[in-house]
Each structure stands twice: as structure tokens, then as C-alpha cells.
Amino acid sequence: xxxxxxHEAAVGHDHAHAHDHGHDHGDHDHGPGGHSHPxxxxxxxxxxxxxxxxxxxxxxxxxxxxxxxxxxxxKISLFILLGTTILQLAVVLISGSVALLADTIHNFSDxxxxxxLWIAFILxxxxxxxxxxxxxxxxxxxxxxxxxxxxxxSAIVAAWQSIARIxxxxxxxxxxxxxAAGMIGFIGNEAVAVYRIRVGRKIGSAxxxxxxxxxxxxxxxxxxxxxxxxxxxxxxPLADPIVGLLISVAIIAxxxxxxxxxxxRLMDGIEPELVEKAEHSLEHTPGVLSVxxxxxxxxxxxxxxxxxxxxxxxxxxxxxxxxxxxxxxxxGHALPNLDDMLISTVTAPMSSSAPHSH
Length: 358
Prior knowledge:
With 358 residues, this protein is of the alpha+beta class.
């Protein structure tokens, strides 16, 4: 009869980690040796619109500090986007550009999506209760779904406006102002996108990365506004509403990768590379013969999980506890975003309890 010991670890280490985590956003191709991404032109756009949700080299270990970083990113980007939206709205009123109107709607919706994400980060700091025994970290993924819904709705509204303008063309005015507003929109959105994606990767937040991708998308729609205005200047009046319609279609298409990422997390899906890293760190812990079971899941931008490790049948309770403690330490290095890991031990049959080389 094999003995069975259980140990619970709240893993949180303040070290600089230099491991690279891979993530399955969009169309990653995973294989036994890791994963690959598209290259060339496709790879360029893939990197722009389907970035990884976190990079372990820059990960923040402490959950509270990570939430503070997330809220700070949202505050700063919210004010930048509101300023951009106000400037663009003024130009819409004096020009009548429907493409710029579509862009302004997107910028405003992008600013609004910061609010539920902000609330989610604050909720995530609350302690677990008798009802929500795992805490409130999942609110972050719900906020991500809200962001997707708002982006989709804003794209539909912009498309409707563009179609109406194609059916009933209206003259445009102050086209140089439209060009300037388009450039302001691009600069503002790209600044916000870079900031949100960087912080989202740093703290492991898929929702914040999704919000950054949303801002980047809006930045490119602003450039499309510039193209539309230039087309009107060159004598093609329908360029403006056609560009507005193309903007809407592009945004709906780009949402798919974000929906997959957030949906996977809500279903407790995990990037296979993270499981491999956890297995590797446990298997190379002195005293561990094998890892029969391992489970990981995201709760917001933090990881939780359970694992069963096999130790020699001759191991005493004290020795098993020492092995678990070392395993916790190794996991902390491999997965900086890991908060809680329940590690249980089982003993191997006597015949397979020979010393394990590491």
C-alpha cells in the first residue's frame, strides 16, 4: 500500500527570471519542441495583432503589485484616449467625414472598455470568500468578454453609418483637418497599445493585452481615415464611406483571436507550453521519480494548479516534505505568475524506486 502525503504551497518568489513562456493566441502551431509563429509580412501583422499575453522574463511575481500596474496602465490610457476622442469629434462636426466618425466611435469605445477592466483589477484584489473560494480574479476574463462585445458593437455601428453614406452621399469639408485628426488618432492609439500590451504581458493579463490590441486596431483605422480623405481629395468622394466600411470589416475579423484567447481561459484552458515548463521543473527536482498528474489554470492574470509527484517508496514523511518544498521552489522559478500550487506525493512500487538521476 503506497503512502500518500499532501502539501499546499503558495508560491511567490522575488527573483529575476529569464525563462521564456509561449502562448497560444490565435493560430500558434504547437509541437513537441515548442511552437512557431508566421514569418515575413504575415508574421509582422501577427505580432502586431496577436501578441503573447505575458512574457516571463518581465513577469511581476506579486499579485497585488501586478494589479496596481494594470490599474495604472488603464488610468493613463483612458485619459489619452478620451483626449484623442474629443479632438476627433470636433473635426467630425466640422467635416462630416463618416470614416472619421467610425474612428471616433472606436476610440470612444476603447476608452470605455478601460472602465470594466479597471473594476475587474480592483475586484481581483479582494480576498476569497465562502462563496467565491478562489477569489475574484475571473472578473478580469469577464471584462475581456465585455471588451469584445463593445468592439463588435462599435464596428457594426460604424458599418451601418458607412453603408448609409454610400447610399446617400454627402459632401465633405475641411479635409486637411480630417487628415490631421486621423494622424492624431493613430499616434494616440499606438501609444496606448504599446503601453497596454507591454503591461499586459508583464503581469500576464490576457484581457489587458486584448485591450491593447483593440487600441492598436483603432490606430490603424485612423490611418485608414487618412487614406479615405486623400481619396476624396483626389476626386473619389466614395473613398470616405468605403474606408469606413473596410475598417468595420477588419475589426470584426481581428476580434476572432481575442475571442479564442479569452474563451480558452474561461474554459480553464492553459497554454501547453506552461504545462511543459511545470512538468520539466518538477521532473528535474531531486527526489522526484515522475509526475503522474499536473493541472494549471488562469485566474485573471495569476496561475493556480495541482500536481502529483512520485517519490521513492523508502522516503520518510520528512524526506517527502523536503522534496515537495524543493519542487515548490523550482516551480516558482519556472512560472513567476504562479500563486497557489497544491502538490501531493505518492510512493512508487519498491521495484521502481531506484535512485533517479538529475
